[in-house]
Design goal:
Blueprint lengths: L7 H11 L1 H7 L1 E5 L1 H4 L7 E6 L1 H6 L10 E2 L2 H7 L8 E6 L5 H5 L6 E5 L5 H14 L3 E5 L8 H7 L8 E4 L2 H10 L3 E11 L9 E5 L8 H6 L2 E4 L11 H18 L5
Parallel strand pairs: 2-3, 5-6, 5-9, 6-7, 8-9, 8-10
Antiparallel strand pairs: 1-4, 2-4
Helix pairs in contact: 1-2, 7-8, 7-11
GO molecular function, one term: methyltransferase activity
Family: Belongs to the class IV-like SAM-binding methyltransferase superfamily. RNA methyltransferase TrmH family.
Keywords: Methyltransferase, Transferase
Length: about 260
């Protein structure tokens, strides 16, 4: 059992918890808590650390697993939450090739994220994307690290099922999508009302930074500018809420109606 917070393995995990650079260099990230832990594809688990209490409680589920025991104190030291849940896993990162993702479906639905900064927003978008049947998420490198522990928790396991790509050149990706005949939509205050568009064919939606929205460069590349109509003095919605509305309008059009009015 690991009982010292000075243990080299403990220090490495702390580094992975705090540093996006370390997570990228080591090609891995952390997962915490039983619900998320049992969602991890087994072949992606690199290391696994459990308290004795957790190991006893989930004895049947853990048969065949390789893990190392840690003390309650070490678990508290490693945990990113106020109430540690007894399990921390080091998981291998896995991302599809951008070309593979773009060609995955005949009429795909993508969400392209430009410089989102809030971990909760990104996690919610990933989680909702699974529920709405989104093909994949593409984000620029300025977007908050998707492997941030807060993002991971917010996805509620969808991180393992929704394909996503981190790109160095989002404008180039937009051009690639357009060349494939995929219509690109950008949120804009002077755009058309979003529900008057037809999203039944290949579609990609641009979601911008929480404070500044989309850059002019990215907006200019869009085929269509759209807006979510607002009442009162509110000018815009939270990025995750906006994405959710667009995801489910796309699903509604594709699955529940034959002709968009």
């Amino acid at each position: 059992m690991i009982s010292s917070t000075s243990n080299i393995k403990v220090k490495n995990i702390i580094n992975l918890k705090k540093s996006a650079k370390a997570r990228k260099k080591e090609n891995c990230f952390l997962v915490e808590g039983p619900r998320m832990f049992f969602e991890i594809p087994r072949d992606r688990v690199m290391e696994c650390y459990l308290t004795e209490e957790f190991a006893g409680k989930y004895d049947k589920e853990l048969r065949g697993w390789n893990y190392e025991l840690i003390s309650e104190n070490v678990c508290r030291h490693l945990s990113d939450t106020k109430t540690p849940q007894g399990v921390i896993a080091v998981v291998r990162r896995e991302e599809p090739d951008i070309g593979e993702l773009i060609n995955k479906e005949k009429n795909p639905c993508f969400f392209l994220l430009e410089s989102l900064q809030d971990p909760g927003n990104l996690g919610t978008i990933v989680r909702t994307a699974e529920g709405a049947g989104v093909t994949g998420i593409i984000m620029n490198k300025e977007t908050v690290d998707i492997y941030n522990p807060k993002v991971i928790r917010s996805t509620m396991g969808a991180i393992f099922r929704v394909p996503f790509v981190i790109t160095d050149d989002l404008p180039q990706v937009v051009e690639q999508l357009k060349q494939k005949g995929i219509s690109v939509y950008a949120g804009h205050l002077k755009g058309d009302v979003f529900y008057k568009q037809d999203y039944r064919n290949g579609s990609a939606f641009l979601i911008g930074n929480e404070g500044n929205g989309l850059t002019d460069e990215i907006t200019a590349l869009a085929d269509h500018k759209i807006k979510i109509p607002m009442k009162g003095k509110v000018e815009s919605l939270n990025a995750a809420v906006s994405a959710t509305i667009l995801m489910y309008e796309t699903m509604r059009q594709r699955e529940f109606i034959s002709d968009v009015q």
